[in-house]
Write a structure and sequence with these properties.
By secondary structure, the protein is mainly alpha-helical. It has one domain: dinb family like domain (Four Helix Bundle (Hemerythrin (Met), subunit A)). Helix content is 51%, strand content 4%. The protein is built from 5 helices and 2 strands; from the N terminus they run H-H-H-H-E-E-H. The longest helix is centred in the middle third of the chain and has 24 residues. The chain is globular.
Length: 170
């Protein structure tokens, strides 16, 4: 059975805590988010080493492997979006369909060891872009019109990363 696409607008997590994972954007210091993202990598590596990492817990939930692939791609996506914010005035971000990406790149069939090895460099790319930000108020726009600043984009990205650790109980 295919996963039902997540069509929720999760930007509300910038204003209120996430009851599911406990994330509170107010407690995130954007300048330190790169270090926090890097610190998550060993937890993902451990989760990917589970014998059942490639198995879905049910028909409607991604496996640890699929979540890890998504997290790798989110790290790279948010690094790219931060770069766009730094280098361009109010850039519009291209649409990214996470479910289409999962299907097109075969998240479920990727090698857990390879994905674990890719998470560190992806976290490093995100951290490098965070370190390069000089003006945290610079804006960028998602394809649905949601406006972010470098600060809110970083906080929003951190929710995604932390929420998925919660999803896989890592």
């Amino acid at each position: 059975m295919a996963i039902t696409p997540d069509t929720k607008d999760w930007t509300w997590v910038l204003q209120e805590p996430c009851e599911e994972c406990g994330f509170d954007a107010a407690g995130i210091e954007a300048r330190r988010a790169g270090d926090e993202a890097r610190a998550m990598v060993p937890r993902w590596t451990e989760a990917l080493a589970r014998p059942d990492a490639g198995e879905r817990p049910d028909d409607s939930t991604w496996s640890v492997l699929e979540y890890a692939c998504h997290v790798r791609d989110v790290l790279l996506l948010f690094a790219e979006r931060l770069r766009l914010i730094r280098e361009h005035d109010a850039p519009e971000f291209p649409n990214w369909d996470q479910d289409a990406t999962a299907a097109q790149t075969g998240y479920a069939s990727q090698d857990p060891r390879a994905v674990a090895a890719e998470l560190g460099p992806a976290a490093d790319a995100f951290a490098a872009e965070i370190a390069a930000v000089r003006d945290w108020s610079r804006p960028g726009l998602r394809s649905n019109g949601s406006a972010f600043t470098a600060d809110t984009l970083t906080r929003y990205g951190m929710h995604d990363l932390l929420h998925h650790l919660h999803d896989v109980r890592a």
